[in-house]
Each structure stands twice: as C-alpha cells, then as structure tokens.
Amino acid sequence: GVCHGKVYFSETFDDAWEQRWVLSKWKETEKEKMGKWQLSAGRWHRDPAKDAGIQTAEIMKFYSIAASFAEFSNEGKDLIVQYQAKYEKDLACGGGYLKLGPSQEDLSSFGDPTPYNIMFGPDQCNAEKRTHLIFRNGGKNFLKKSELPFKQDGEGISHLYRLHLKPDNSVRVDVDMEKIYEGSLKEDWGMLPQREIEDPSDKKPSDWVDEEMMEDPEDSKPADWAEAKVVDSTAKPAEWDEDEDGDWEPPKVDNPAYKGQWTAKKIPNPAYKGVWKARTVLNPEYTDDPDLYKYKDFGYVGFDVWQVKGGTIFDNIIITDRLEDAEIFAHKWKALREAEEAEKKKEEEAQSAMFEKAKAARAARAAKEKQEGKKESQSGAAG
Predict the structure, then answer these.
(1) Cβ neighbours of residue 57 under 8 Å, at least 6 residues apart?
(2) Sequence-separated (6 or more) residues with CB below 8 Å from residue 58
(3) Averaging pLDDT over each range in 165-179, 258-272, 345-359, which range is the top one?
C-alpha cells in the first residue's frame, strides 16, 4: 500500500502561539528573571504576520521555552527536524539550537537539566562557532567527533536548518537547502567502541629500522674544506721575548672561508622498513548496535539557550517522517530569504546614496569657503 507520512509537530507562530508553548522558569531567581519572548517578523520580511516567529527580546538572559506533542517513536522510520533561525544582531555569545526530547510531565521546569534525545543548531562564543548536533545514547550526550561548520552569518537573514536521521543510522544535515554533512551515526559520534584496536601483545622487533635516510658511507669530507677557526699569523707582538715570555701561541680567529660544519650527504636507507605499527585485532569490547538511531519516545521540542545580545527569531518548525512535508516549509523559507536579501540590498544602497550625497555637500561647502576666502584676500590686497 501507499505509505503516508506523518507530521508529528509543526509550528508557524501566530497570535495564539502562547497557548501552545510553555515558558520555563528553571533558571529564575528572586534577583534574576529569565529572558522575555515576543512575536516578531524582524527588520526585513514579506508579511509582518505570516513571517513572524518568536524572538528573544532582551540581552544577557537565559531563554527556555518548550511545546509538547503526542508521544512517538522513530523506530523503522525517517526522522526529519527542520526550523528557521534569524539573528537580528550578532549574538557575540549564545546559542540558536533546539532540543528534541522525551515526554515531560512539566515543561515549566524545562532547561539545562532536562534530558533530551537530540540537540541541533548554531552555537557561538566569540571566535568559537559551530553547528551543534548532539545525540543522547545510554544516558550520555555524544557530540560529533569533528564539528559541523557555522552557517548563521548575516544579520537579519533567515537560515534554514534540517536534520534527516534514517533507520540505517545515516545522518544528513542541510543548512539553507545545501548539504553540509552526510555520514554515519555509528562512525562519527563515537557512540560505539572501536571495531578494531591495536594488538597490545604486538611489539616492535628489536632489529626494526626506523630511519628512512642515512649518511652516505662513500661521501667524505673534501681535503680543502675550510675549518671554522684559523691561526692568526699576524698577531705576534714585535716585543714578544720567548726567553722571558715563553713560546708564542698564536690566537685562532674566525675563518672567512668557513662554509659551516661538514656533514655527509643523505641517501635512502636500504634497510628502512617503514613506520612500525602494531597489527590490529577485533576489539573484544565491540558490539554493533543497529538501533543507535532509534528513540522510543519523542514528546517535546524546545529552545533552551543563553544569549548575550538576544534578538533571535525562531520560526517554521516541523518534525515529520516525510521529506515532502519539510520541503513545503523550505519553499516558504526560500521566498522569505529572497525578500530579506532584496530589502537588505535596498537599505544598503539607500545608505550608500545618503553617504555620497553628504560627501558631495561637504565638498561643495569646502569649495565655497575656499572661494570666499580667496575673495576676501583679494579685496584686502586691493584695499
């Protein structure tokens, strides 16, 4: 039969968004309130209502907010997680990632201590920048062994993040509809012990030759090779009396003809066997796990970040098992992105024109003042 996809969660943020999302108080104290969220489309958009998302509205704050949905497992199915993030200003330090986790009884305490299954999205602190993708397995969080590149550049411009996790344990990440990673959950997150290890009982043979090059035994120092020091034959004082002063020992001085210490030339070592490596054997600790990708319970999605400057807008979240559903949201993003870039260009051109106009006015003023100064000096001379 035809396989119908299922959308587990989708959110485009309208005026009623607060009825579906729970504001967390996990980091709140008497002294310090958590950051406020507001509905905003940002500086550039197509439609202020349709393009609105939730925005971190303050500076130097913790932000935590989450929404629940009907519990599901991704067993035997694709999992696609997609959302938009727009930085209205450079964060300096902070995250723009989302968390996807198991069902929680009370999301008002959702925060750093809350367990999650997947954490995905941009993160930065000054020069350190990355796109996070963390998977939880066996009670531990596993970061990708090599970091995914940071793509959240450009203030006021929306970026689209998509994670595609498959039942064959393959993972693909796209940012702005361009693939930035495709690979294996088994190999790139270090969740499983290594399949093969070096044999601890294998030792380097005592006669193993490590030196790739050797001195040429047939090369010898030329007879006329200049020494570093030579006897200064001109140095004996005329008044030196060997009977009284003893034998004259001429001092040695630097030899201007000296070319450096002589060394025999190097030739390939015929006995060289290469770099020695212990042989590899199957790791007795290794067991394969075909179910690494599988989570028995997804029940919430949330944002839990610290931000220095704030101003981040999150929008158009979708969690589904069918790529076509995510593509619909991706087309919305593309149209918005084109509008943002056109608005940005228009603004930059207007600023540039204003700058040129001001520059021309300054030049005209300077020329006028110069002319008036010349007239004054001429009338002074005539008087």
Answers:
(1) 35, 36, 37, 38, 40, 310, 311
(2) 35, 36, 310
(3) 165-179
Q: For residue 177, which of 160, 152, 165, 194 has the smallest C-alpha distance?
A: 160
CB proximity list for 97: less than 8 A, separation 6 or greater? 119, 120, 121, 122, 123, 132, 303, 305
Residue 214 CA to residue 269 CA, distance in Å, equals 5
Amino acid at 88: E
SS3 175: strand
Residue 383: per-residue pLDDT? 64
Under 8 Å CB-to-CB from 117, ≥6 apart: which residues? 100, 101, 102, 135, 136, 295, 298
**Residue 146, pLDDT above cutoff 60:** yes
Tell me how far apart the alpha carbons of residues 326 and 328 are, in angstroms, rounded to a whole number: 5
Residue 8 has pLDDT above 70, yes or no: yes
Q: Which residues of 199-229 are buried (b: 16+ CB within 10 A; e: fewer)?
A: eeeeeeeeeeeeeeeeeeeeeeeeeeeeeee
Can you spell out the DSSP letters for 19-49?
A: GT-EE--TT--SS-PPPPEEEE--SS-S-TT
Over 90: is that where the pLDDT of 82 sits? yes
Res 376: pLDDT: 75
**Encoded tokens for 252:** 């040695």
In angstroms, rounded to a whole number, what is the distance separating the alpha carbons of residues 310 and 304? 13
- Provide φ and ψ at 10, rounded to 5°: -150, 145
pLDDT in tens, 206-264: 888 888 898 898 898 888 888 888 888 777 787 888 888 888 788 888 888 888 888 88
Rg of the chain taking only CA atoms, in angstroms: 36
Mean per-residue pLDDT for 151-180? 96
Residue 319 · residue 78 · CB < 8 Å: no
Question: What is the structure's pLDDT at 3?
Answer: 56
Which is nearest to 290 in space by CA: 195, 194, 196, 192? Answer: 192
CB atoms closer than 10 angstroms to residue 126: 8
